[in-house]
Structures are given as C-alpha cells and as structure tokens.
Design a protein that fits this description.
heterotrimer; A mainly alpha (221); B alpha/beta (275); C mainly alpha (213); B: 275 residues; alpha/beta; D-Maltodextrin-Binding Protein, domain 2; 2 domains; six-stranded mixed β-sheet; five-stranded mixed β-sheet; 10 helices; 14 strands; 42% helix; C: 213 residues; mainly alpha; MetI-like fold; 81% helix; Transporter substrate-binding domain-containing protein (chain B); Solute-binding_3/MltF_N (chain B); ligand-gated monoatomic ion channel activity (chain B)
C-alpha cells in the first residue's frame, strides 16, 4: 500500500516546507513566550485597567479558533488599513495566539511560588528586582516548563492553519503532493511522520531544559 | 505477552482485510441496486454546482443527480467533504461517484473514469470592477494572480503566464473562497477559475467582482468521476447512459440555464482532452 | 447579519458542542485508563500507554481523523463521518488528558493513601474513592482548558464530512461571498460557548472545594 520510493522522492520538497514550518514555529514560540512574560508582568505590576484590558483580550484570543483569527487578520485587515503579506501576517497571528496562552501559564506559575520564599528573600535583604530575577523567575520556570512544552506542541499544530493564507508550509506542501499524485496514503504518512518528528524534537528540548534547571537546584515542588 | 497480543491483532486485521477485500469486489451497480441508494461525494463550496443556500444543499449537481436517481429508481445520499477529502474518500470506498464536478484532464483520465461532461470548464479571470488596466487576460502580465491549489485552472494559469511578457506572481489558495476574499481585499489583481464559476461569482456580487472577457484557457469540460476499477464499470455505464439521455431530452440544457443563466454545448464524451 | 444565516450558524454550533461534550467525557475515561497504565510498574502496560500518548499528541488530529475515516475501511471497519469524528477527538483529548492526570496522580498525598490503606480500603476502593477524585480535582483547571481546546479542535472534523460551526461558516462564505461578517460571527459563537465551559468549570471548582474530595 505504501510506496517507499515515492516517499523518498518527495523528501526534498517536503524538507523545504518543513523548514518553513519549523522557523515560523520557533520564532512564534520564542516571541510568544517573551510576550507572555511581558503580559504576565504587566498584569501583576501594572495598574488595574491594564490588567482588565489584557484579561479581556486574552479571553478573546483563547476563546476563538486560530483559523477565525487568522482569517479576520489577513482578509479583514486591508479594510482597516493593515495589509500584511502572508508570512508576517501568519507570524503575527501565531505570536499573539501563543502569547495569550503562555501568559496564563506563567501567571499560574507565579501563583505557585510559596509566599515564604519571597519573604525569606526580603529578610535576606534582596531588592524587589533581585527577588524577581533570582527567586521567583527560576522557580516559575521550573513549575511551568511542562505546560510551556505542551502549549508549544499545540502551537505547532496551529501552524498548519497558515496554509489558508497561502504560506507554503508543511501541510500545504504535503496535501498538494497528495492531490497531484493521488497518493493519499503516502501523503498522510509523510504528514504524520514530519509532525511527530517535530513534536518529539520539542519534547527532547523540553527535557533538556528541565535537566538544566534541576542542575541549578531548582525543581518543581 | 505484548508480542503475542500484537501478533493476534495483526492476524485479526489481516482477516478483516481479506473479508472486506472480497466484499468490495462486488459489482457496484448490483450493490447500489440492492441498497436502493447511490452515494455521491462532493464539496458544498462550489457554486453554482454545489452549495448551501439558506440552509439547503442546492446547485446543478443536486438537481441533476435527483433526476438521474428518479430515472434509475435510486435514492441519492450526499457525502459532503472539503475538496481535499473527496478523492481520498472515493478511494476509500466512502461513496460510489464524485460530483464536484472535476475538470476533465489527461492525467485524471489515467486514474479515473469520467461520466459525460455536464458543463464548460474553460479557465477565465475574475477581477475587481472598474480596473481599467485589466481589460483582457494578457493584462495580468507582471501582476499577482491567485488560483486554487492543485486545480486544473491553476495549471492552466501557470502555462498561460509563461506566454506573457513579464512574469506573473501566482498564489495558491486552499479554497476558492479564500482567493476571492484576497481579491476583494486588494492583495491580488485577479483569480483564475472556470468561467462557469466566476461568472456566477460576479453575478452574485457585481459591486465587488467582474469577469475579464474572454476566457483564456484551452476549451475544457467538467465531469463527474468514478473509480476505474472493473467492478465500477457497470455503474459507470448506467450513469453515463442516464446523463446522455438527460442531454438528449433537453433536461441538462434546462438545468444549465437555471444555474448558469445560459445553456452551453457539451460533447457526449471527452476522449482526448486538450489539457 | 441576515437572521437566516445566523440561525444556521447557531444550529451548527449545536453539532460543535455535542461532539466536544461527548469527546471530553469519553476522553476523560480513556485518559484515566491511559494515565493509570502509564504509572503501572508493568512495562506491558506502561509502554503501550506511552506509545498511545506519543502518537496521539505527536500526529496532527487531521491525520488521525483521515486515518480513521479513510484507512480503516481497508481493514473492514467503515465508520460514518460523525462516529469517526467522535472517536478521533476522544482519542486525541485522551492523550492530552492522560498526561495531565498523570501529574494529578503524582500530586495525591502519600499520607492519605497510607491512611486509606490502614482503614481497610481495598485497592479498587482506594483507586476510585481516593486517587481518582483527588487527581481530577487537582487537574480541574487544566481539564477545563483542555475542554476549550477540544471545542476549537472540533473545527477539524469537517474533513470527515461533519458540518460543524467552522464548516458551516466556510460553506456560507462560499455561497454569499461575504466571508468577513460570517467568520466574525462564528468567532463570537465560539467565545460564547467557551464562557459557558469556563463558568461550568468554576462551578465545579467551587463544589469540589467542600465536596468529598
């Protein structure tokens, strides 16, 4: 049923598309985590209206499918003067989507830091900034790492939606191979293989990061 | 222990596979007659052939298969999938015939059997109205044009673009609706699709879209398709005879007039497509 | 927006909600079984459970759905689209829920388990009366966000022929050629359902605070 030689022949084209998926995924995950940290800090230390506005925006982004958000940004944007090319539009939408989820995970992580640790740091004469950098952030990182990895995997699945705005990513490339060659089973196999590989790669990075944090004496409580 | 479980499972699956293999070798026409139901796979985002209007599944396909079913004493059961799922679904035996319809090409004829053509599929361009610098198809030279991914109309556009002076940037869309939306949003200058489809689009939203006359592609036709497997041959013959009959007694022309605004001439069979 | 179109979108939301609800509940049951198997000391149980999670988390839901719908017929299992959709969503969410619940089981205090053992609970009672309620309670917030994830992931089941909210929006966009208001409405309907789920989650959390867990 499966024709291995056909699969091998498609690899160069598929690898090119996989590279597009991988870089957009990595960039949106990194920017998304940075944005998530920023949002979490702004909600913690900023004035109340900022907190409420961010809370509302996060609900909107987390509540609706990424496809709908991307569609409205890309096809609706030009009507309000925001005409982005496919790749920048995809990167922006994916980063915002990821940041909304990441910020909630990180906020939950701050809540999990025992108040005693912060008080102990204060007793030892740490400044607020030092407490944040040396005590809270390392502890939060250890607590939220598994959830961040989980979310990053979900973000990868969402990159497939970018085909709707003509980004030549993995799902787009492989389904085109399927419909041009009529070899749908091989196409499904390639799709499964490449996404599974990317997910497992992300899992390995996550475990590496966990081990690094553990070496500095920080581990999830 | 796991190994033995696995072997048992594999053995069971093989048996099932053999059983289903024999079941599927039955003659398709006999099977359809026995159940009294013809299963038709289609996509419901292909107006005027197949679409959802006020919650009702309508279009030329629906009327045509309804009439065909009445002639043959069969009930029609529709299976609506996104287009990328339709041909895999046919291969998996989820339905007997694909509506669509599909542009008849040499490559597709190698893999599938086409029923007699039911409409013209010649490629044409859709633009925004009042675009004076896009008066004829050749004016897309140097512009950006969209088309449906893996469609015959995309292939024709690519061939046509090579004959023009300046390179044409071609964007491939998952669905035609997305391409139309991008045309309305102003990112692309035109969309290539069959004349039948885009004439309908322009008629529905004349404020937003217009047709670039004349069509640019080689003459081509839309048809329904059915597996080439020998067990499907009798069903294909019966359906083909039904369509030819509807052509002869004027019912097909009446449906074309109803859905396209005008009847168009189609041959009884396409043997050597230009594409 | 045209009220007839709006009614169609609301009706399609019914499919989305029903399918998600069935999958979440069935997925919780399968997820519990898989999580228990993952924590088992017997490799014959833990290895397949790990493979299950790796496959269903690693392979896109789209591929899983197409495998169930289009490839199972070749081994004699021909499922209607709606059944294939429910099974695909259930297995996918089960894999994510199993990972979450595994963490929940790890959070059950040892002392509590020992105490229950001392008062003479059988292992089965211990599992159903102590470990499962506490694990579910500990992971309730994650399970609620997983429910919202599945609600949104259900937009993929159109590949097996189920016309849920997203597909209905696409169909209507294709026949009216006015995609923007239709997609915006669909997005608002998803958000409305999410608020319902989140409200339900909060209610459950409040109840479980003074409940038997």
């Amino acid at each position: 049923m499966l024709d291995p030689s056909f699969i091998v022949a498609q690899l160069p084209a598929v690898l090119g598309a996989a590279a597009v998926t991988a870089w957009i995924w990595a960039a949106s995950a990194i920017l998304g985590v940075a944005g998530g940290v920023g949002i979490a800090l702004a909600r913690r230390f900023g004035p109340r209206p900022v907190d409420l506005a961010l809370k509302f925006s996060i609900e909107m982004v987390r509540g609706s499918p990424f496809l709908v958000q991307l569609f409205l940004l890309y096809y609706g944007g030009p009507y309000v003067g925001l005409s982005l090319d496919p790749v920048p539009a995809g990167l922006l939408a994916l980063t915002v989507y990821g940041a909304a989820y990441y910020s909630e995970i990180i906020r939950g992580g701050f809540a999990a830091v025992p108040p005693g640790h912060v008080e102990a740091a204060a007793c030892l004469g740490f400044t607020h900034a030092q407490t944040l950098l040396r005590v809270e952030i390392p502890e939060v990182a250890a607590v939220v790492l598994p959830a961040l990895v989980n979310m990053t995997i979900l973000l990868l699945k969402e990159t497939a939606v970018l085909s709707v705005i003509t980004v030549p990513e993995l799902t787009m490339a492989i389904s085109a191979i399927g419909s041009e060659s009529y070899r749908f089973v091989e196409a499904l196999f390639l799709l499964a293989l490449f996404y599974w590989g990317l997910v497992e790669g992300c899992g390995v990075l996550g475990r590496f990061a966990e081990a690094r944090l553990a070496r500095f004496g920080v581990a999830a409580p | 222990m796991t190994k033995r479980l696995f072997l048992k499972a594999a053995f069971g699956l093989t048996l099932l596979g053999i059983a289903s293999g024999t079941a599927r070798a039955d003659d398709a026409l006999a099977r359809v007659r026995a159940t009294g139901t013809l299963k038709v796979g289609t996509e419901t985002a292909f107006a005027p052939f197949d679409f959802i209007d006020a919650g009702q599944h309508v279009g030329l396909n629906v009327d045509l298969f309804e009439a065909l079913g009445k002639d043959m004493g069969l009930k029609i059961q529709w299976v609506a999938l996104p287009w990328e799922g339709v041909l895999p679904g046919l291969q998996a035996g989820k339905f007997d015939v694909v509506a669509g319809p599909v542009t008849i090409t040499k490559a597709r004829m190698e893999r599938y059997r086409f029923l007699p053509p039911i409409a013209d599929a010649t490629d044409a361009l859709l633009k925004r109205p009042n675009e004076a610098d896009l008066a004829k198809p050749a004016d897309i030279s140097g512009k950006t044009v969209g088309a449906g991914k893996a469609s015959s109309q995309l292939a024709q556009l690519q061939d046509y673009a090579k004959t023009l002076g300046q390179p044409v940037t071609i964007r491939e869309y998952v669905g035609n609706t997305d391409a139309y939306a991008d045309l309305a949003a102003g990112r692309i200058a035109a969309v290539a699709n069959s004349y039948t489809n885009i004439a309908y689009v322009a008629k529905q939203r004349p404020d937003t879209f217009a047709v670039v006359e004349p069509p640019f592609g080689p003459k081509s036709y839309f048809g329904y398709l059915i597996p080439k497997a020998p067990e499907s041959a009798t069903l294909a013959d019966a359906l083909s005879a039904g369509i030819v009959k509807m052509k002869a007694d004027g019912r097909l022309a009446a449906l074309q007039k109803k859905w396209f605004g005008a009847a168009s001439d189609t041959p009884d069979a396409v043997t050597a497509p230009e594409l | 927006m045209n009220p007839a179109l709006f009614r169609l979108l609301v009706e399609a939301t019914g499919y989305t909600v029903a399918l998600s609800a069935v999958s979440i509940v069935a997925g919780l049951a399968v997820g519990l079984a898989v999580a228990t198997a993952m924590l088992s000391r017997r490799r014959a149980l833990s290895m397949p459970a790990r493979a299950f999670v790796s496959f269903f988390r690693g392979v896109p839901l789209l591929v899983q759905l197409l495998l169930i719908y289009n490839l199972l017929p070749s081994v004699g299992i021909d499922l209607p689209g709606i059944v294939a959709a429910a099974i695909g969503l259930t297995l996918c969410t089960a894999a994510y829920q199993a990972e979450t619940l595994r963490g929940g089981f790890a959070g059950v205090p040892r002392g509590l388990v020992e105490a229950a053992d001392m008062v003479g609970l059988t292992p089965v009672q211990l599992f159903w009366r102590i470990r499962v309620p506490i694990a579910v309670k500990l992971t309730l917030p994650s399970l609620v966000s997983e429910a919202i994830m599945i609600l949104k992931a259900s937009s993929l089941v159109s590949v097996v022929g189920v016309v849920e909210l997203t597909r209905m929006a696409q169909d209507l966009a294709a026949s009216t050629y006015r995609p923007l208001p239709i997609y915006a409405t669909a997005g608002a309907l998803y958000i409305a359902v999410d608020w319902g789920i989140a409200g339900l989650g909060h209610a459950l959390e409040r109840r479980s605070r003074w409940g038997r867990a």
